[in-house]
Amino acid sequence: MATRTDNKTGDDLKAQRFQMLEDIAKELSGEVVFPTYFDAVLRLRKVLQDPNETIGSISSAVSLEPLISAKLLHLANSVAFNPQGNQVVDLKSAVSRLGLNAVRSAALSIVIGQLLRAKGMASFADLTHKLWEHSVHTAAAARVLAREHTRFNVDEAMLAGLIHDLGAFYMLYRATQYEELRERPDTVRYLIVQWHESIGISLLNALGLPEEIVNATEDHDRLRPAPEMLRTLSDVIYVANMMSGGHFERLMRDLGSTPDELDELSRRYGYLQPEIDTLYTEIKNSLS
Length: 288
Prior knowledge:
The structure is a single chain. The protein has about 290 residues and is mainly α. The protein has one domain (about 10-285): Hypothetical protein af1432 (Orthogonal Bundle), CATH 1.10.3210. It is built from 16 helices and no strands. The protein has helices at about 10-30, 40-50, 55-65, 65-75, 90-100, 100-115, 125-150, 155-165, 165-175, 180, 185-205, 210-215, 235-245, 250-255, 260-270, 275-285. The longest helix has 25 residues, at about 125-150. It is globular, with a radius of gyration of 19 Å.
């Protein structure tokens, strides 16, 4: 028996797509609405961005979010951040060891993980799983690339890598609110491929992420010649993204052929892949 959504015509479905994009545009021009647990990061945002805040006051703010506190302690004691094996048992020491950008990364990654469990997200389970793994892998790659090839803050690079596709997660969450789109994950894929970058930039600005991090995520999925040197944070995120399953159309459409630009990236930076994969596994296990 045909369902009500099966009877939707092409014009009706097109109207639903445009409605979602219009609603997103309206929301991004005002107050961004995420599930309630995303509020945890929004509450922490001002504290984490205030240069006058002390480690103690930041730790106190983080301690109000038990899930984030527990994950931060776990991450601070992981091999990635504690190669000497000196365990910390208090949140202040954990925040001090991780640094603010790593705390931002961890808080956002925890909330993204919770976002994937939001009502209705089961319709996009395969897509969200791929996106999540890709984001964590890009974060690991950005950290390693920044350390080996630049003088950039490695935690800032990791944060930029983690949130470079936040626009796609946001679009998925918004798509759950439209019955016709929940029934058609392929049309949501199409919308994300076309719009996730521009929506992501607007979203990151609306959430108050630092300008240099927002700018680093721009055009990360647009293929271009492999940079000979990583001169900017944008270069780092581009290479990290491509080494971690990008570009986005390949990730979403499971394209088989490998563009020449990706082959060149692999020749230049592929020697770092084992270290990137190890760090990816470590971060993923610490935050899962």
